[in-house]
Design goal:
Blueprint lengths: L2 H11 L5 H17 L4 H11 L2 H10 L8 H10 L4
Helix pairs in contact: 2-5
Amino acid sequence: MHVWESVKEVQYYCGRLDFKHIIDKYAVHFFSKIDKMNNDVVQQCFSNFKRGDKFTRLRNDYGFIVHDSLLAYRVYDKLSLQFH
């Protein structure tokens, strides 16, 4: 086990996310808010973005759909799988 892996475990058991998961959680939350907007221009831009690599990686990593009301929990659940 590497030193930084033990830090991840401490963060997990303290109920905290590491930096990568925090960024992902806020990104997913932000995308959820954008998806609910009633602005046609924003919706078209977001529609194009959803076909890109960054959004696809997040969706594949955490197994969510944009309308999911438990997005933050999905990021934490993915991290917890490493320690069970």
